[in-house]
Amino acid sequence: MEKESLFTKKGGRDEGKQTPRDAATAILLRDRTEGPYEVFLMRRHRNQAFMGGAFVFPGGGMDDADADPEIAACTGGFRAADAKRLLQETDLPEAIALGLFVAAIRETFEEAGVLLARDARGRVVDLSAPGTAARFSCYRLELHEGRLDLAELVRREGLVFAPDLLVPYAHWITPEIEPRRFNTRFFLARLPEGQVPVHDRLELTESSWMTPAFALAEHEAGRIILMPPTLKTMEELLSFPDSAQLFAAARSRLIRTILPEVFRTADGFGIRLPHDSEYTLNVGKQQPHPGGSTRIVMEGGIWRARSV
Q: Which of 3.30.360.10, 3.40.50.2300, 3.90.79.10, 3.30.1330.20 would CATH assign to domain 21-257?
């Protein structure tokens, strides 16, 4: 496994150990008529040095353009103050706070083809018509290649972005031992009607809807790879029987920063989470509490959640 970064999905500028790059990840969910809800996961290309073969959520590093003041005029009245409040980060610069929501929208569109935006009538954009789907597929490629930015896309289509459809869920920071670090906010989002996610076929080779239970079972069997933040998130999602309870809990939960502490094990290494009884870092340390895993260790080539 590459040690470039264990805790976010996408590489980017090398900001060094002291300045983690801001990043955003979207946990895209859909309900089913029968059975529990599903989560959209995509597999990284196996040939990529960075997290090759791992199943991930859409997401990546925040770009400078995500925090452009011009973008702030395209958010349908959603303000930077709203972003700071929802992220529970009162000291965060306003441009960064709003930019994180925009980055989550951009990355979800670039990587999964799902656009969280509304038309002039206030309806979430419907991409189901063949002509519309083809047009937005072209926009997606242009964004990938840097020939189009988000502000131009919404101007062409008469849209506004819908950051209110994103619910902040978690906040992970890459450990200090890593040469490239990321300061990643995780968001929940429902799949809009009239949209079908499709992986980008550039950095990603396949995609699938999975229930949390199925994803964890596949990972434990070694058939898919889940990196520690994805693994821990899936474990948490498993405790919610339906998406309504999950979103309700996310809107009322206290978001605590998770800075994993790396430690050596007999098989290699692992990470302690802030509520682990042996966690020694001062940043984000929490009181031990029952329920769920407190550390994630590499055993037999597979990340496994453990408690002490």
A: 3.90.79.10
